[in-house]
Amino acid sequence: MDRIAKLKEFLASNPDDSFVQHALALEYVKTGDDAEARKLFENILNRDENYIGSYYHLGKLLERNNETETAIQWYERGMLKAKEKGDMHAYNELMAAWEDLDPLSP
After folding, report:
1. CA dist 53 to 13, 24, 26, 46, Å?
2. pLDDT over 90 at 104, yes or no
3. 43 lies in a domain?
4. What is d(CA 84, CA 103) in angstroms, rounded to the nearest whole number?
5. Which of 38, 85, 82, 22 is nearest to 98 (CA)?
6. What is the pTM of this model?
């Protein structure tokens, strides 16, 4: 059974599992299915805004699809949440991605 099918099977028994949704989204990114990956990342973050890792991956996906303004917004939201949670590693990764895109960044 391929990874996507296996992850979908796991998700069927626990549809709100952010870890499995995130893993499935990353598999979709690998296969080039950005639309499905985006749905999953947005679903995770709309349900659980503290799932910090998804902000970065969603932002990168949006960058690849020339949605720079939307990517910046997600990076900014992620930076706020990472800072609230004290996750400075994630904060720094999000800030670096944001700085690469935002013309007003320092």
Report:
1. 23, 13, 11, 13
2. no
3. yes
4. 25
5. 82
6. 0.91
